Amino acid sequence: MVTYRIASIGGDGVGPEVVAAGRLVLDAVAARDGFSIEWPEVLAGGAAIDAYGAALRPEDLEAVSACDAILLGAVGGPRWDDPAGRVRPEQALFALRGGLELFANLRPVTVLPALVPSSPLRPEVLAGVDLLIVRELTSGLYFGRPSEQRDTPEGRVGIDTLIYTEEEIRRVARLAFELARGRRGRLTSVDKANVLATSRLWRVVVDELRPDYPDVEVNHQLVDSCAMLLVRRPSSFDVLVTENLFGDILSDEAAVLAGSLGMLPSASLGERRTVHGRFGLYEPVHGSAPDIVGQDAANPLGTILSAAMLLRWSLGLGAAADDVESAVRAAIDAGARTADLLPAGGDGAGIRVVGTREMTAAVVDGLGSRIGVAS
Ligand code: IPM
Ligand code: MG
């Protein structure tokens, strides 16, 4: 029997609750399909600051890098929010992303028809939405140095550095081209080339790759107009590729299309492969939601859908990934809704408010036998 090793990083806030949900679903798939999963547990974020005084210990980074994949909840919370603090929970994310060279963050946005009323946008705007944001994850403003505050004769000065090498652009753009090729063949490269030198280089490097992908139609879009088009004509997008900060912002905006930030999964990938697939880090796009911790109220579907991406990308189990996604759709179609998915003022006919655990159980039930869900 094959045994996969998946590092389990609950993190802070609702992180441990949603990771528990993702694990239940993956263990159910394993039991059904005859493989097993070992779950080495690692502390990261505020939890690790409390335990060790560091957001992620070097030995833990090493331990997770020896696994087949990582499933992560969320980090951060008001307890560790001191802006002047030397250690901050988010450092764990940057250590994982940077330390493991996970340069491409895939954030797919699909609209389940039954969740159209959960979005504040009009139904006709949401028809046909199926897009994938590919966010560069290990460079740009998040990693550029210097990044600090200085005392100067003119007063305090804050400085961050936006820097991209051509290779950093090329490797993420190449993956985006490949992904577009496997989808509807349309790639939108998002930048701010009318202002930023890094964006002008970004455009040039993306254009240089075009000859390798004659089947992919490329267009360049400025990030401000892209932000508008994402809510005006979201179905016009297929794959978007963009630098770190733009991708961070646009993906939260795009979550509105899916009905709730709680629905969005993500996969962070690099070049490295294991014997089973591509090594990766999987986490929901939402944060630690400290206001609802311990209430069984968090939406587990972003993490469960991240677990599906893990099956597909890191374990090479595409059919099982499809099954998990179908089971999520079936749970939603059957009327299960966590609080974040309740339509504002809409009629509640056929809708059942459930907690994290009941939603997870609904997905696990829907997995059934492979034949049962292969619609
Ligand atoms: C995300 C989050 C993180 C980011 C925060 C928590 C540092 O917003 O993964 O999108 O900005 O990358
Ligand atoms: Mg974000």
Walk me through the topology.
Layout: E1 3-11, H1 15-33, E2 36-38, H2 46-52, H3 58-65, E3 69-74, H4 90-99, E4 104-110, H5 123-126, E5 130-136, E6 148-152, E7 155-159, H6 166-181, E8 186-191, H7 197-209, E9 217-222, H8 223-232, E10 239-242, H9 244-258, E11 267-273, E12 278-282, H10 301-313, H11 318-333, E13 336-337, E14 352-353, H12 356-367, H13 370-373
Helix pairs in contact: 1-10, 1-12, 6-7, 8-9, 10-11, 11-12
Bound molecules: 3-isopropylmalic acid (IPM) and magnesium ion.
Residues 248, 252 line the site of magnesium ion.
Structure write-up:
It is a single chain. This protein is an alpha/beta fold. The chain has 13 helices and 14 strands. It has helices spanning 15-33, 46-52, 58-65, 90-99, 123-126, 166-181, 197-209, 223-232, 244-258, 301-313, 318-333, 356-367, 370-373; strands at residues 3-11, 36-38, 69-74, 104-110, 130-136, 148-152, 155-159, 186-191, 217-222, 239-242, 267-273, 278-282, 336-337, 352-353. The strands form three sheets. The chain has a ten-stranded mixed sheet, with helices on both faces. A two-stranded antiparallel sheet has the order 6-7. The protein has a two-stranded parallel ribbon with strand order 13-14. Helix 1 packs across helix 10 (301-313). The longest helix has 19 residues, at 15-33. The protein starts with a strand and ends with a helix. Mean pLDDT is 96; it is low at 371-375.
The low-pLDDT segments are 371-375
Bound compounds, each kind once, are:
3-isopropylmalic acid, magnesium ion
Q: Which structural category do the helix and sheet elements fall into?
A: alpha/beta
> How many beta strands in the DSSP annotation?
14
Strand-and-helix sequence, N→C?
EHEHHEHEHEEEHEHEHEHEEHHEEHH
Distance between the termini: 28 Å
| Largest sheet entry | 10 strands, mixed
Strand content: 15-25%
